[in-house]
Specification:
Elements: H1 2-35, E1 38-41, H2 44-49, E2 62-65, E3 69-71, E4 79-81, E5 85-89, E6 95-97, E7 105-115, E8 126-128, E9 132-143, E10 147-150, E11 159-163, E12 167-170, E13 174-177, E14 182-184, E15 188-198, E16 204-206, E17 211-220, E18 222-223, E19 229-230, E20 232-235, E21 251-253, E22 260-265, E23 274-280, E24 286-291, E25 300-304, E26 311-315, E27 323-329, E28 338-344, E29 349-352, E30 360-371, E31 374-377, E32 384-387
Parallel strand pairs: 1-2, 2-5, 3-6, 4-7, 5-7, 6-8, 7-9, 8-10, 9-11, 9-12, 10-13, 11-14, 12-15, 13-15, 14-16, 15-17, 16-20
Antiparallel strand pairs: 17-24, 18-19, 20-23, 21-24, 22-23, 25-26, 26-29, 27-28, 27-30, 30-31, 30-32
Length: 389
């Protein structure tokens, strides 16, 4: 009798635990499904709200800007992204802030990716009348394309991008401001492409203890009222500054430049006394940085199908890379039904399973290298085909 009661208790316990696990799994899947949505944003109120889970918004989603609009001029009109991952595609539209002292985006811990699928648009994707179209203090930001511009109303010194903390990676796009293009006063700024332009001073400046690394980019100097032009600048009182330290390994300045300094007596109370702005490309309208770093291409050496619904891919091994990417498809031009597989650098072959029997598959491979916060891919190999057993 005692054993029967014990058995019943054990069964009840097991059933209860399994029920709870089922509920947790269902909740997890529903959360994942809820996070995998695309929202079209058409107003300032909606943009400001995307940081929160009201209306189904929140991290994990993709947001597409649906039209041009202006944010408000109040304290809470800036879009603040504090945690989680966000992908925002501006789609060629302009988003600006009405207030002279407010940026459009404030990133303080989130993982954000900015995209503009219509880079040819003559409108800035983000425009700010404040200190920066984008103000970053923590987290991660990747800018792939688009325009990010800081405009002045005559009372402030705006820039397109301010990095005060976290990690910002710029792979393309235009970043500019009436005062300077971009500045870094903390954290890390890695530039792998794009164009930076300053209106009155520097295209790019280190205004603190930031870590700047450039592999490729174009920098257009601003012109001061005295006629001086500076592509790069750094605020370092009584200290020489070496701008060559900004170059990533394998990168170089495309033209000779002259290093000088601009001795300016500051009247601002925060910076009493004389401040030395050491500038590179003194009186040079434009300076470009080029990179010789690339990922070597590889080729398919072996493509066999000895077992049912499987195919083995072998390739020429390459050194100095981070890994390989293999793509297979039933379409010769890889326009549909494409599957991608990333393989570690030490591997020589990959067995692909769960394929369709008696079906012809096309295969190609390329290498990739992680460099300066981005991924460099080689060219695709020649396509080879195999019918699976």
């Amino acid at each position: 009798m005692i054993k029967t009661k014990e058995n019943k208790l054990i069964k009840i316990t097991i059933i209860t635990v399994l029920s709870l696990l089922s509920l947790i799994l269902l909740w997890s899947f529903s959360e994942l499904e809820a996070q995998a949505k695309t929202f079209v944003i058409r107003s300032g109120e909606e943009l400001v709200d995307i940081n929160w889970k009201n209306k189904g918004y929140g991290p994990g989603n993709k947001y597409i800007i649906g039209n041009d609009f202006t944010l408000g001029d109040g304290e809470y009109s800036t879009c603040r992204l504090t945690k989680g991952k966000f992908v925002i595609d501006f789609n060629g539209h302009t988003v600006q802030n009405a207030a002279a002292n407010l940026g459009v985006f404030s990133i303080s811990g989130a993982d954000v990716e900015f995209i503009d699928s219509k880079v040819s648009s003559d409108k800035p994707s983000v425009r700010s009348y404040g200190a920066g179209a984008i103000d970053m203090t923590a987290g991660k930001l990747v800018i792939r394309s688009g325009n990010y511009v800081g405009l002045s109303n005559g009372t402030n010194n705006p820039c397109g991008l301010h990095v005060g903390g976290g990690t910002c990676v710029v792979n393309g796009g235009f970043i500019g401001g009436d005062y300077l293009g971009a500045d870094c006063s903390g954290g890390t700024l890695m530039i792998n492409g794009g164009k930076f332009e300053g209106g009155y001073t520097f295209a790019l400046a280190d205004l603190g203890n930031g870590n700047i690394k450039i592999s490729k980019g174009t920098f257009i100097a601003g012109t001061t009222t005295y006629g001086y032009r500076f592509a790069f600048g750094a605020m370092r009182p009584n200290e020489y500054y070496n701008f060559n330290s900004w170059l990533a390994s394998g990168s170089s300045f495309s033209s000779w430049f002259r290093t000088g300094y601009w001795n300016m007596q500051s009247q601002v109370s925060e910076y009493p006394g004389t401040m030395y702005y050491f500038a590179v490309a003194y009186n040079t309208p434009q300076l470009t940085v080029t990179s010789s770093v690339s990922s070597p291409a590889t080729s398919i050496k072996k493509l066999v199908s000895k077992k049912k619904k499987t195919m083995k891919v072998g390739w020429s091994k390459k050194s100095g890379i981070s890994g390989y990417q293999i793509q297979i498809s039933t379409n010769k031009k890889f326009k549909k039904n494409v599957k991608s597989y990333n393989v570690k650098a030490s591997a020589k072959a990959k067995t692909v399973k769960s394929l369709k029997s008696k079906k012809k598959y096309y295969v190609r491979i390329r290498t990739y290298k992680n460099f300066n916060g981005t991924v460099l891919y080689s060219k695709w190999s020649k396509v080879k085909a195999k019918t699976v057993k």
